[in-house]
Specification:
By secondary structure, the protein is α/β, with parallel strands linked by helices. It has one domain (about 15-155): Rossmann fold (3-Layer(aba) Sandwich), CATH 3.40.50. It is built from four helices and nine strands, in the order βαβαβββαββββα. The strands form two sheets. Strands 4-3-2-5-6-7 form a six-stranded mixed β-sheet, with helices on both faces. Helix 1 crosses helix 2 (about 50-60).
């Protein structure tokens, strides 16, 4: 059983209606941008990007495929990146010659996504772009170009809508800010 999330919630940062409206806008823009391409592959970064991917792909009207990549740099129970990025699960599809769109839940330091983009670029795609639901530019330590941004947010610890709090609460339909006092009381 999942514990009630309310104890950890300081505030709802982005409500469900606002999230869904922005995801629809992103899907429409991606559909326009890829209208002439027949080899679009959406690569979801697991686990956090799953909810975003499933909602986003409903709004992308051009034919596309999906695949999944699991990378880690945090480690279970950690709240900051270790700086060491590794691929835990690689793609099942060959990306050579395809138009790749990486779909991510959140980018803060940029370190993990820089690693992913470099790995994908080395595999010879026709094009490579990045789409993130949340962007924390104030935390950026590595330069990375983001082609599609759902929301820019301040440096706050967030959860919900795919983002976890120690692997819990990914199922919430909104993005909330973690109440720090609740974490110290565990």
């Amino acid at each position: 059983m999942t514990l009630p999330y309310e104890k950890y919630l300081q505030e709802v940062l982005i409500d469900e209606q606002t999230l869904q409206a922005r995801v629809a806008e992103l899907g429409a823009q991606i559909s326009i941008d890829y209208a002439e391409h027949d080899r679009l592959l959406l690569i979801c970064i697991l686990k956090g990007g799953v909810m975003f991917l499933t909602d986003l792909m409903r709004h992308i009207i051009v034919p596309h495929e999906i695949d999944f990549l699991a990378v880690s740099s945090y480690g279970r129970g950690k709240r900051a990146s270790t700086g060491n990025v590794r691929i835990d699960m690689d793609l099942s599809e060959v990306v050579t010659g395809k138009h790749i769109l990486i779909v991510e839940d959140i980018i803060d330091s940029g370190h993990t996504l820089r690693f992913v983009m470099d790995v994908m670029e080395a595999r010879g795609p026709a094009s490579l772009k990045l789409c993130t639901l949340l962007d924390k530019p104030s935390r950026r330590t590595t330069e990375i170009a983001i082609d599609y941004i759902g929301f820019q947010i301040e440096d706050r610890f967030v959860f919900g809508y795919g983002l976890d709090l120690d692997e819990k609460f990914r199922n919430l339909p909104f993005v909330g800010v973690v109440r720090q006092e609740a974490l110290t009381g565990e």
